[in-house]
Amino acid sequence: MRVSRPNDTRYREILERAARLIQESGYEATSMQEIAEACGLTKAGLYHHIKTKEALLLAIMHYGMDLFDEMVLAKVGDIADPVARLRETMARNIALIIQGSSKEVTIILHEHQTLTGAARQEINTRKKRYVRFLEAAFREAIERGQIRAVDPTLAAFSFLGVVLWTYKWYRADGKLGARQLSDGMIDLFFEGLMPRS
Asked: Any idea of the CA torsion for 42, 111, 58, 89, to the nearest 10 degrees?
């Protein structure tokens, strides 16, 4: 696994501020000049930290994936029961999306086609790792008879669809609290996977 989350506080600030601007306006509509100003830098100063706009986008996506690895995958890998592992993965993934780190995660979802060549391949490789993790857990749960026999790839992408779309409609000031949201989505998803009598 590529560990790219930088230890340099200033560099992280640049990534986070750039991510906020890109999330609000989109990659194409956000200029390096705007990012530099948001970071309190000249454009030349920004280019000291980031060589190109695409390199900045790639760095933001790796930063988002690093946050995901740290806050989700690293916390669930040791859970022996595959259904419990999947449920906890969903809860942690939802929490990551609806909290402050969502901008980096949503940029991965919205702007992945913007990357080209090796940069796109880097991010796709990391995303596929998550899909394989989910498929393996679903496969194990099926083999144990804990859930009904479904296609593990279909289950993995359905899981991702349920979780990753949350940022489009969830509002922190709405009628659903974060815990209510997470519990409700987990219940709906996993009840549908229970073995049929």
From this structure: 120
Taking alpha carbons only, the member of 105, 86, 13 closest to residue 50 is 13
CA dist., res. 91 & res. 104, Å (int) = 18
Mean pLDDT score, 49-67: 92
- Asked whether the predicted pLDDT for residue 135 surpasses 60, the reply is yes
Render the burial of 87-115: b for 16+ CB within 10 Å, e for the rest.
bbbbbbbbbbbbeebbbbbbbbbebeebb
Q: Cα dihedral angle (116, 119, 120, 123), rounded to 10 degrees?
A: -160
What does DSSP assign to residue 112? G
Residue 152 has pLDDT above 80, yes or no: yes
- What are phi and psi for residue 34, nearest 5 degrees? -65, -40
Closest CA to 104 of 194, 186, 21: 21
What are the structure tokens assigned to 51, written together?
A: 């060589």
